[in-house]
Amino acid sequence: MADIYLRGGWIITMDRNRRVIKDGAIAIEDGNIIAVGKRESLDPQYKHYSDIVLDTDKDVIIPGLINTHVHLAQALLRACADYKRLIPWLKERVWPLQGNYKPEEALVSAKLAVAEMLKSGTTSFLETGLVGRYGIDNIIEFLHESGIRAAVARHVMDLKGYALEENILHEGLVETGESSFNDTIRLYNKYHGWDSRIWIWFGPRTPGAVSVELYRKISEKARELKTGITMHIAEVREDVDYTMKLFGKKPIEFAEWVGLTGPNVTLVHVVWVTSEEIRILAKTGTSVSHNPSSNLKLASGAARIAEMVKNGVNVTLGTDGGPSNNDYDLIREMKLAALLQPLITGDPEALRAEQVLEIATINGARALMIDHLVGSIEVGKRADIVVLDFNKPHLKPLNNPVSHIVYSATGSDVKHVIIDGRLVVFDRRILTFDEYKLLEEADKAAYNLYERAGLCREPDLKWPIF
Ligand SMILES: [Zn+2]
Q1: Distance between CA atoms of 265 and 212, rounded to whole angstroms?
Q2: Spacing, Cα 70 to ligand 1 middle (Å)
Q3: How far is the CA of 210 from the centre of ligand 1 (A)?
Q4: Is 380 left (phi over 0), alpha (psi -120 to 50) or beta?
Q5: pLDDT score of 174
């Protein structure tokens, strides 16, 4: 007897032995995985005695994907900042647009990102930094309702960073150290650990926007509260210049010096680092979120992920946001991650498909400090499971499902998604909120935001539109 019984297909378990089960089956009860094995051995017990039986014999089943770098407030900014490097991208487009959000529009943006993630197989994610003007409480309550798992970092800052000389950060984007820190604690007390699906993290801004004292305070408090910290670092060459000029330290040396390394820290991008800094990341157990689409599109550079993996760094994968990727599809991101390393190393086996799938599942779970709950399909873990429809031309012949997932599939191949034992996506339809209504709301909310900001009202398209 089970609540849900998945019958058939290949199961890529990602368990300790990395077992791949052909003609497998999974039984789920009370949100827990209670059996994983061959279909023929589980059928007698579950086939006729389960509430829901999903026939998945032509499908491939993987653990839910874990996206470790998401900007929920950027989904409405898709295609609003193409063809720019990071700093003009931020100053000319992203900050002015984000600085004009009304909470109801930021909520629509969050819903859009979550809808896209769910439909492309992401079951847990790390939001990098929400600020007051987005209406954080409403967004968190929606996340809970949507069924997804999320570690939500709240931005903390006390300096103006790149915007130091110019007054370009709008109200509600720039906050004081005291208010942003205290609000993180308020959110922590209100939401952290909610149904083992919502966690509150610290999201300090990049070096330059946070004082050394505040970084140290965040580090101490996060350790005391047993929660996480995430921060963008060494994304562009200017990030190295900044910490070298002011502190005589390379970015990861700086992070270690202010207490932002360790198993509860996920550093994002980590492009401009030396081999010595990679060793610091490995030694301290710090996780890295690799965001290849964003790094390539903004011409930021290529992170040396293969070298990091070889040195024992916990590398994970993130999509970043609407104006830098421009999608939230972690399956597409896996392909780019897999292709980039052969290019920069000259070694076609620099990062194998198996390693890329580890990066997108179990490594992500470890970064979010939830690998005891999710990240693999094994008895005793919560059921976060993605079923991919493999009965398609681009996924035949089915001789190597792991290669196909990484190199040939896209998010649109996701058929069913189960999170915490609950069917959240069934046959490509979201069951927890109205995605069709959301699509209409998204266009309206974006129009209002663009009008208010005076940006992105015309498409950046070189061709005439009739
Ligand atoms: Zn980012």
Answers
A1: 17
A2: 7
A3: 16
A4: left
A5: 82
Q: Ligand 1 mean position to 11 CA, how many Å?
A: 32
Q: Is 342 exposed, middle or buried (0-12, 13-18, 19+ CB in 10 A)?
A: middle
pLDDT at 175 (0 to 100): 87
Element (H, E) at 36: strand 32-38
2-63+376-430: which CATH architecture? Answer: Roll (2.30)
pLDDT band of 327, cuts 50, 70, 90: very high
Measured in Å, residue 50 CA sits from the centre of ligand 1 at 43
Between the CA of 378 and the centroid of ligand 1 the distance, in Å, is: 32
Query: Maximum Cα–Cα distance for the chain, whole Å?
Result: 70
Cα(69) to centroid(ligand 1), Å = 6
| DSSP-H helix ranges across 176-211 | 177-191
Q: What is the mean pLDDT of residues 422-443?
A: 98
Number of H helices, E strands in the chain: 17, 19
What is the average pLDDT across 234-256?
Answer: 96
Measure 288 CA to ligand 1 centroid, in angstroms: 13
Domain range summary for the chain, segments of one domain joined by + = 2-63+376-430, 65-367
**What length does the chain have?**
466
Q: Interhelix angle for 136-146 vs 177-191, to 10°?
A: 30
pLDDT(291) > 80 = yes
Q: How far apart are CA 40 and CA 122, in angstroms?
A: 29
Ligand 1 centre to CA of 128 (Å) is 7
Strand 65-70 relative to strand 122-130, pairing:
parallel
**Cβ 61 vs Cβ 46: under 8 Å:** no
* Rounded-to-integer distance, Cα 202 and Cα 215, Å: 10
Residue type, position 290, single letter: H
Name the residues around ion ligand 1, CB cutoff 5 A: 320
Averaged over 387-403, what is the pLDDT? 97
Distance between Cα 273 and ligand 1 center (Å): 17
Average pLDDT, the chain: 96
Distance 129 CA to ligand 1 centre (A): 9
CA of 389 to the centre of ligand 1 (A): 31
The alpha carbon of 324 and the centre of ligand 1 are apart by a number of angstroms equal to: 8
CA of 93 to the centre of ligand 1 (A): 14
For residue 297 the two structure tokens come to 């599109």
Fold classification of 65-367 is TIM Barrel (3.20.20)
Strand order of the β-sheet with 50-55 is 32-38, 24-29, 2-7, 50-55
CA 229 to ligand 1 centroid distance, Å:
14
- Give 25 Cα–ligand 1 centroid separation in angstroms: 38
pTM score of the predicted model: 0.98
